[in-house]
Amino acid sequence: MAIGELPAARVAASAEIPLLAGREALLGDAADTHGLVLHVTHAADQPHELGSAGPMDARLYPLLTSVLPSGRAAAAPVVLLEYAKGAFAGGRWVMINRTLSSAFWAGGGAALLGELAAFAAAGVTELWLKPGYACYEPGERPTLTLQHERLGRAGAAAAAAAAADGNAVRWEGRLRVYREAALRAAALPSDSTDGAAADGDAAGGPAAAGAAGSTSAEEEGKAADNSEAASAAGRAREEIHAEPLRFAAGRGLGFERLTLPLAAEPGFYTVEAELTSERGERRVLRQGFWGRDEALLQAGAPLRAGRDYFTRAGRPVPIVGMTYMTSDVARKFLHLPNAALWERDMATMAGAGINLLRTGIWTAIRTMSLADGHVSEEILRAIDAFFLCAKRHGLEVTFNFFAFTPERWEGANPYLDPRSVEAQKRFIAAVVARHRASTHVHWDLINEPSMFDPDNLWSPHPVRDPYEIAAYRSWLRERHGDIETLQERWNMTPEQLPSFDAALPPLREEMGMNTTEMTPRRGGQWLDFVLFSMDMHNRWARELREAIRQIQPEQLVTVGQDEGLRSLRPSPLFYEEAVDYTTVHSWWQMDGLVWDGIFTKAPHKPNLIQETGIMYVETPDGRAKRSEAELRNILERKYAYAFSTGGAGAVQWLWNINYYMDNVNESNIGAVRADGTQKPEADVSYDFGAFIGQAAHLFAERQLEEVAVVYPFSNDFSNRRLADEATLRLTRTLAHRMNVPFRALGEYQLGALAEQAAPRLVIVPSAHNFSDEALARLTAHVEQHGGVLLLTGPLSLDAYWRPGGRAAELVGPSRIVNVRREEALALDGRLLPVSFGGAGIAKLNKELLPDADGVYADGPATLHERPLGAGRLIWCPLPLELGETYEPLEEVYRHALAAAGVAPELEWRAGGELPGVYGRKVAFGEGVLYVFVSEYGAPCTVEVRDPASGRGYRFELEAERSVLFATDAAGELIAIYRPDEVRVEVV
């Protein structure tokens, strides 16, 4: 990927591989360079797993870095690529990724190239420094292993060269062990001290922002952050042991085992091995380990979940988070721990304002617990060390246990077989029990769950094992009561479905999901199966959550879900009841980012944008389609939308890109490149970290939106899905084009209507089939509490697509008919065209009312309005949200908003007319967050006035950028996002 000029940068040579020390001036201009995108892994070590890692064949080291005035390494114009495995094992490449100037050649550049060529020709000696455990109990003697192997190149010529140069190469050096000083911070306040700083003991405490830690082993100087803050703080340490090192690295794998002459005490230790070969090659290896520090783990107060946001010791904690495993070995970080690397990276992240890390297990769980109930002590101690590093720097940790489907441990069904579920509980208990008193950790049961078949992900697929079949039949009995009711709802004869015991979980491919499929339509079965899958996921999650509660009742539990609402996977609006907060992972749906946030925000619990990043997109000829600046802007937009939709915060995927997977996406996604330098998108964490740090105290008592939209799950779970498209069009219309905020409710989760501030306007968009119970609940609510209920599309179809007479109770007799390609809506003296293109005339319906003579005649549709108790019903018989144009939809929404008395939250004086400009006011008890996002192709001036405070604000909104600022209740500015780049004028 191209990296532009960095005119204010200085260059720094690697201290770990000092080939360019003293030669920086030759290569130190501000010329353009490139960051390498590595895709060196082309196999999986767990082929049956979607998230499998692969062989770690190669590693990239920066030999020269460009460092910004802030201290952040922004590019590596000279890098070293070494292969340790595979077809290129033993090969070295030194790459200078810039055009060389005449000054380079005049200053001895040719001689330097000769030295680099000789270094590359010498081949690779692979060196690892590893602790016996990443964490030791106090009193235990730490052990270390220095692992070495001189690697040869493949092929006959290489074999001959190896025979001629087959002697081992001698290395000498010195090993030093340091005890790191404690860090002080106020990041995790204590309930008992009302937010006072919690200090660790002499071994360490939570870290202040900007505190630094040890650098990495095997990273050889990857300087992800060389900031002055990171290098100046926390450097006091004590050398407690030193000894010489001597070994010969030959063609076979060799080991030097060391037992340190000391007993571990609570605290953090770093180890450095400075090595020089007889041929002059120099290496510095760094590692770390912990003496378990229980006092540090127990310091401070735990994170708690409110309705919208997290708190600690009563203070709001909006999340600016990061997914982190590690840069040296990626997903193998628990198998090959390096606490010194974790310490360094966590110091950098804490210094950026990041306050939460998400980590855990995405693959290879059986290598951690081959036998049910027996978890590797090495793995458990690596988790201990990771948690200790995070606590040292004041970072909350969300630890994920399973991915996509939970591990079965020889059971038949991952969610329903008691053998599997009990084994899962035992695995979780082995981790949680060690941290029952830790105040900065909580648990993510599973990443992006699919139901039920592990071999068929991303939408519900049955296993059809005995446990699933029995649970399904029991669920059907409870839902339907008698077989006759089920036969009617499924449109099946007694011969086809003689009893509940004849029902099997349906296969998606047999459901006839499209109008062009010539298969029997069995939509009723599909609705029930998807509802069953939601309930079974909740049952599973509750059971595992209860297992955690028995060990530690205060630590939070969640489930990490992606945009799975669109794929019929467990939805946050359903699983809210089984967890402490909900999540969404906003990835591919770039046109639905606001939709992502709203329709996953459950009424009673926080919703965290728990993974967000930018998927890699290529041009047809295989080049990267987006620049790094565009990637930054997209990520910034995702963060801004997260906070604007009532989200509890945002967590980026990922700190370091992962090039140890056979996945080109993972080779591109992340804030830090393969060479250890930071991309422009890292700015998003720094900038949001600074902004949220200033405005965090405001995030309490969020005022709810006056408009609520009901997500029509019965339709979405049917074999004629329209809800996704309808709610996306509604969101683009209301939130983007009209700048009207709204909240979401689920069709099967309408209890919040009576439990929270009643919305003035409730919309059910083009649902078609909708449950009788939900419609009755909505109408009863409006009758009792007032407000306007706006329904669009057919009104008479129940959850199973069966026409009924319920519309007659609301609007009189009616008839379901097909839409025409071109329809019309008469509204306020105007005739608005409504077009249904594509497959609309095959999929969609409208509803007709008879004229005064009882005739169902063709003609323009009209809005039907009538009193509904204390409120009002507005019904449009056309499914407007599924039409091609925005105008009729906007006009109907304006009409309904006026009827409901919904006042604009902002008065737009400039910029509001642009469809690509989004703006939102998020009001709190003691202040306001303003969020503005451009999806527009040009910069523009935005000016708004807040009617509540009477204050106006004017600023320039760059194309594709975001502007956020916070004020107190009187409208005085408190904080501005990117204050060095954005000027907000109070008018």
UniProtKB/TrEMBL annotation:
Matches recorded under SUPFAM superfamilies: (Trans)glycosidases
GO cellular component terms given for this protein: beta-galactosidase complex
Keywords: Glycosidase, Hydrolase
GO MF, one annotated term: beta-galactosidase activity
Domain Glycoside hydrolase family 42 N-terminal residues, every copy: 470-559
Bias kind Low complexity: ranges: 189-216
Top-level taxon of the source organism: Bacteria
BP terms from Gene Ontology: carbohydrate metabolic process
Coiled coil: none
Pfam families cross-referenced by the UniProt entry: Glyco_hydro_42
Ranges for region Disordered: 189-236
Record protein name field: Beta-galactosidase
Lineage: Bacteria, Bacillati, Bacillota, Bacilli, Bacillales
